[in-house]
Amino acid sequence: MGLHRTVSGSWLQGHLSTSAMLSQTSKSPSENDTKIYEMRTYYVKPKAFADFMKLTNEYIHLKSDTNSKLNGYWTSDIGGLNEVTHIWEYDSYAQRAEARKALSQDETWINNYIKKILKMLVKQDNLVMNAAPWFDVKPPLSTGGVYELRMYDLVLGKKEQWEHRLVQGLPDRCKLSEPVGLWFTEFGHLNRAIMLWSYQSLDDRIRIRKEAQEIEEWVETIRDCLPFETRAFSKVLIPTEFSPWR
Predict the structure, then answer these.
(1) Domains of the chain with CATH codes
(2) What three-state secondary structure class fits 101?
(3) Which of the 8 DSSP states describes residue 228?
């Protein structure tokens, strides 16, 4: 199963800029890569948000020290208030388990951070995601802007059709700007596609999306993907000072 579009190297060079790498045929994550990404969302009590961010800025490095790779850490600006979203990268589920075990034995992490922030939270959510095997996850080309997190809930059993149509139009969209990453959920909310975009500003986003509406192939791609989606929503995220992806 997977995508059935054959793509040559010259086609890639002519249609993509740097990070979107389409293979000749897509492979399942288990065949292609064991790497996983965990996206966590914490909903913070409004009065505690400043204290939560101060503690996180001070202690989040302890989690990275346990072989957990932090890709990005953001606060929500539009689409959710008093929320933080962070994405962690692991080479395997075994590495994630080992890192979590090490953290559970770190008294500084438990006593100075976890026990304090738990009182500040309303709830926590997490997803485990696999990157699309035909698209490279990599940091944004520029820093200092904003991010848009877009999530698409797909019709059960229609992921392949949605993916197949997206891959045909995405190269033209990437001429204007490229996603930082494109993932599909493995655990948590299932049948969900997640795209993370980086822009210099929200005005820059509006300009780029307006230009994208003039690209016939991309407009047709959006139209053809719609029947395979049950819901779509987005959030505007602001990278924190300690976020590797800025």
Answers:
(1) 36-129 (3.30.70.100), 143-234 (3.30.70.100)
(2) helix
(3) G
**Cα–chain-centroid distance for residue 80?**
16
170-213 pLDDT, tens digit each: 999 999 999 999 999 999 999 999 999 999 999 999 999 999 99
Both tokens of 4, joined, read 């059935």
User: Residue 63, by phi and psi: left (phi above 0), alpha (psi -120 to 50) or beta?
Assistant: alpha
Buried b (16+ CB within 10 A) or exposed e, 165-197: bbbbbbbbbbebbbbbbbbbbeeeeebbbbbbb
Residue located via tokens 């009065």: 47
Please tell me the distance from the alpha carbon of residue 109 to that of residue 36, in angstroms, as a whole number: 23
Q: Pairing mode, if any, of strands 192-199 and 146-154?
A: antiparallel
List the chain residues with pLDDT less than 70: 1-33
Burial of 103 (0-12, 13-18, 19+ CB in 10 A): middle
pLDDT tens track for 28-46: 444 446 899 999 999 999 9
Contact 174, 168 (CB under 8 A): no
Q: 216-225 and 159-173 helices cross at what angle (nearest 10)?
A: 160
